[in-house]
Design brief:
By secondary structure, the chain is an alpha+beta fold. It has six helices and six strands, in the order ααβββααβββαα. Keywords: Signal.
Amino acid sequence: MRRRQLLLSACALALVGPAGAAPGHIDQHLTQARVAGRGTFTWFALAIYDAELWVGEKGYRPDAPFVLDLRYARKLDGIKIAEASAEQMEKIGAGTPAQRAQWLARMKTIFPDVKEGTHISGVFLPGAGARFYLDGKALATVPDPEFARAFFGIWLDPATSARSLRTALLKDAAPR
């Protein structure tokens, strides 16, 4: 009986994959994908989402793809997510007012309402734009490199309002 349980456990692990392995939608964009850092974004002591920065063999660099995965800790309206993103883009000084208005309109069509446990992953595609996934399924592609830099700058730009989260995300972002 014990031998059968061990065999079943081994089969289950083989189906899930090795511990720490990147989900498929992340693995398809990054060579040697690994988590560079993780942290929680809070607002007035309420956890809003957990964030993970996935990088490839080049680490975090402006010419290398990376993935920012957000796992939401609560229910949020997609329109509010888009509006908060546009506000943060303005705070870091990204884009012109006209660009931010266009980006906001686009984000309102992309971001769905979320609930606890929902994942939205954004892939930075250097020189090409950004691709988004909802719980591992393709959501949208934005072929605008300036949008991509502005969007990911919300978390990764030195001027971010979430400095401690930025530090946590970039903890181990150097190439290996």
